[in-house]
Amino acid sequence: MRIAIVRLSALGDIINSALILQFIKDAYPEAKIEWICEEGFAPIIMNHPLLQEVHTVSIKRAKKTKSLGLLLKTISKLRSLGKFDIIIDLQGLLKSAIVSRLIGKNVYGFDKDSIREGLASKLYSSHAHIAYEENSIWRTIVLVSQALNIDITKEMLAHKKPSLFYTKDDNISKSIFSSTQKNIGFVVGASWPSKTYPREHFVSLAKTLDANIILIWGSANEKEDALFIEANTKNTQLASKLSLVQLTALIDNLDLLIGNDTGPTHIAWAMNKNSITLFGPTPASKMMWQGPKHIAIESDSQVNPLKLNRSDMSIKNISFESIAIKAKELLS
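Above: the chain sequence. Below: its structure as tokens.
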């Protein structure tokens, strides 16, 4: 059986979706599973041993550069992939539905009442219904379960194997880690300012923790915040600029990761590492799967999962003391 998984973006969603591969392979050991995603996110799953191949699209770049030629090249590439027995669109957007139909007709996706862009469902040959406000990881599980007629339970999800991989060449220098203290990562950035915990609060948190703290950043603004935290504490240090795979390796070597609702905290969940995720304008019940190792701390905001408010700055109301308590519990 040749299976195509379509999940074009974003980083956190691709990371959270990767766990389905182990369940598909358990049910269909001979299956050839291929993934279609945006080129910028491909490295995070390129090393996955259960994937036959990762195919990339350049839709974002074509849109940004207004390049019709690049878009046509992407369409041609998709049409040349050959026949799939089934295509599963995990994303449920019009663009992912179009990509799915370009590679075949037997497309399984969410019905019109289960996705934000209901028009996408018209391009699917088969549908699954699960409320849009339901946990996004469980939505993925239900869709794949129905599409492939396999049983994936919440108990199986609780005992999942790590779902991201890296090679020894991607591993991080041991010099950044302490051999005498616990190693904690702080993820200082996020895709929205309102999802970002204030850097002054991170400073206060660092001062309460007896640990070697590694500051993880991506953009120039995030680096500036990380430098501020480093300058105002004695137990923090900046990580270098990391690729997605190197980031996975670093997180796999930590004792705990603390950060905003963003890609790196999802990596910690995928790798079964201790994590604390901070939520302001986004709902923890939808965005992450909690458990003994993975704790969500939410602000006092009443979040509507159907209409997120990017101006909701309530994440700043989360006390650093409450985070420190949970951190010490996880590390004890």
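The chain has two domains: 2-158, 169-331.
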